[in-house]
Protein 1
Amino acid sequence: METHIKSSKKKVSLSKKIVNKIINRDTLSLVIFISVFLVVWQLVYMSEILPKLSLPSPLAVGQTIIELLFDFTLVKGTAFTLWRLFLGFLLSLTLGLITGLLMIKFQQFGKTMSSFAVGLQSFPSIAWIPFAILLIGFNDFGILFVVVMSSVFSVMLSTYTGLRNVPPIYIRAARNMGAKGFSLFRYVLIPAATPTLIMGMRQAWSFAWHALIGAEMLITTLVGLGYILSVGREFSNMSQIIATMIVIFTIGLIFDRVVFIKIEEKIRDRWGLNQQKIEQ
Amino acid sequence: MQFKNQYPPQKVSLSLKNVSKIYLQRNSKTITVLDNINIQILEGEIVTILGKSGCGKSTLLNLIAGFENSYGGEILLNGKPVKDISTERIMMFQESTLFPWLTAYQNVEIALKMAKVPKHQREQIVKHYLSIVGLFDYSNSYIYQLSGGMKQRVSLARALSLNPKILLMDEPFAGLDITIKKSLYKELLDMHKKTRKTILFVTHNINEAVLIGDRVIVMSPRLYGIKKEYLIDVPNEQRKDNLSIKNIINEITADLYDNA
């Protein structure tokens, strides 16, 4: 592998460079990992330890994925689920940030709210569902409610702790330079809290994602990946269940690796946090 | 330069009259930190305040900067009482207070933004002061890319860019190694020649105090105040290995360690 990369690096052509960027070590090890997984799966399938109805072959699942993609079940489901995720996450961000800021502004409120938020942050998202059904009903708003309740506290707490942990000496220096009120916020507090905020957002995203699939399974609205899963269970269609699980897994992976890791790395670089790690 | 102490500028910049600071503890006991401090600093002068840790020298600086507003006595800057925090009195700290998410250039610029300096004036000011501290070529470096000494030079540029009437320096070079310190002393004195800024410099390092200051004020923890004051009548460039400077250093060392 290494010799291959080295030799191809010498050639300067742009297309080669792009290919090299995509086919780097990480991608290759991922491909190997998945291949091994598929082979083991196929072997277990062929050994007939489990009934074929319970464990279909990788090929059958692949076919189901293609079928479900072509009759737009998966496409539509994914689109709806992502739309709900987007809305729920956006709502959580807005509410969490605003509440977090209020918690900083009003100290006693912040103290009380933060202990509540810690409790509610670890509250199982699925436990919100019966409450949401009776309060709101079997509709999109019920699902959104569960998503928001599961993720808003992470945003809130990271805003609160992020802002509270800004080194006081930064604030002192900034006030000395004439910053107060909004300019102190904009120029110092928010940027200084950003690394913590991003971590909180990443956690909130992952909580929202867990809650959403659960809510879609139990609050039936006839669309969404969670709904496809529950239909698969109704009809004992294991291929459909696994196919949907793969889609859910892929979406999670893409968001985490592509979106959040990239943002986090960029911020860590900029703040000099990665640098320190190397020097130590 | 040679004769600056023989013909001192007469205008008083900062004047402290009977300044006292008492902290109230939780058990309603009081702790006296400063008692009846009287200091006058002339415009363009560098005064160093020397004392062991815990003698209240940082507290004194905090009062002058306006970080703490309850104290006894009077603090006047150019004849006007000091109230609250202001860009007239800029403090430079021992720890770097530069913002790691900004470049050297942006760190100076943000000070001007905070101080509401009009946009069209900023670029020129930032470039001017980064050049004064010799870091113009590092404008686009992020803070973690700079060494400890360079960081403090950016801090100095940032402080100067706000054109304060007095620069308050709270052990800004402590924690740096000796060669870097020496170049920073030179840098500071060169800057002072160019700008004639009034500087109040707090330190626990005797050599540093004597090397930089036109006057050295020695604080005593027992008296909660000033023990002695030394006028350093030798030009900065000639202070190294100078006999009278050595005598002063010995005298101050005795002052600080005779437990009075």
Protein 2
Amino acid sequence: MASDNVNFKLKARELRCLIGPNGAGKSTFFKCISGLHTPTEGRVFMRGQETTGWHPHEIASLGVGIKTQVPNVMDALSVFENIWMAARRFMPTRAANTKTSDIIDRLRLGPIARAELGRLAHGERQRVELGLVAVADPWLVLLDEPAAGMSAEDVARMSEIIHELTRTAAGVIVEHDMQFIRSIATTVTVFHQGAVLMEDHVDRVMSDPVVRNVYLGKNA
Amino acid sequence: MSRTAGKGDVAALIFGVALMLIMPMLISTYTLTVLVIYGMLGLSLGLIWGFGGILCFGQAAFFGLGAYTYAVAAINIGESTLPMLLSILVPALFAALLGAMMFCGRLTDVYLGVITLVVTLILFKFTNSTAGPQYKIGEARLGGFNGIPGFHTLNVPGQPNAYIWGEPLYYVCAVALLVVFFFVTWLLRTPFGRIAVGIRENETRVSLMGYDVRARKTALFAIGAGIAGLAVGLFANWAEIVTPGLFSLGQSAEIIIWCIVGGLGTRFGPILGAAGLAYLKFMLGQQTMVDNTLITGIILVMFVLFLPKGIVPAVTSLWTVSFAKRTPKGRRHRSSARRRGGAHG
């Protein structure tokens, strides 16, 4: 599903959630700003610089951390190696080693640091992927459904990590889990049929009759 | 990791040198030389396919290109040092250009295979059709399907008349293989090598981390071609003739089979697969009862069915498993078995 007529602005260090029914254009929008898609029309700016049509690696090099909807990790490698590789992009080897150990401690991944990623549980892999986004000290994080398919305990841990991340970075998070959204965001943008339907505080969005109609279903 | 790696390196070096000294007692050095060269060629594909995830059907293209480079340069220069360097550089540059084209076009898997295969075919057809006297580079006639014989062979650098052949050539090749093996070992430990493995595992993730995957794949592809070039520089000196047969599809397929049989994702596997299968082919070549390619085909099918990971990974895991079983309660034994298992690859 395409998205059109999206006018979206994010302030520095602002955290924003994108919600909307399936096919509303959230993921297309997400892919356009992260460089995975090139928009046919329209322009993308980051910190005043136009990034329309850039490759993902160029956008990531600006200091943007990206986590896609499907887990994108390196399964045959260890947790340490996964996170180290993300750190090494922005610092020399020795600094990357220290930084990786720091993040592993902070995310409490210590006992599984040497384990092969492919053998870990879904929640742990999601956490590792967030870790390799966090290790690069991004000023903007783009997360597509970070809490998808996770247990309540994992979700709580995840929102803790995101809170910590957004102390220094702005964030755009595509998410379905309403509890999770309440726990992390204040402002929510609602997508519907490829356009922005509404943009407001999470509580007002939740109680808005139009939003409840299109997104939550009439009886919700 | 780095502590055990240091021990593993010393062990590998001792093992390699011992093998280099013992093997001539079992097999004639003339045959051994070409087995060592094939081992290096196997390693070149083992590096880019096993660690970089780039399946190249055209490793023979670099092999042939390097051979012709050496022969043409040797005829024109009359000394072997510069031609040897050129036989490494020309395939590497060619691979860099070809790689840049393929990887920037975001070609993957099958298309990559098709293009590398077609490039090999084009070079094969072209060299076959260069019989006329107009196909000349400097003094050297390309010679069509007859190839180029009679070029200056390997000499001690700076002394064109001190030829290296026979037994000394074997030792030169064996040492070169050891050097390449440790070069690959070192490369895989550098950030470049580690990130190359990351690209094999998940290209999207590595590019989302901010790495230019295209440039890195191109560089690795060129390094692999350079190693193939070194192997063929030595091969030309062993065979003392280069022919279009070096570009043949059979040659390309064989290199892939070596890697599969020996074990992908290991450094030792492709060398073992190459030398082992080439020796088997040599033995089978001495009889006329069964067809050579038939046997190679059967071996490939058997491996794909029963040992899809190849010899080296299978032996490694067998080693680990058997040690763990023999002493189910002995913690010390089990951990030592695991360590030994982990040191391979």
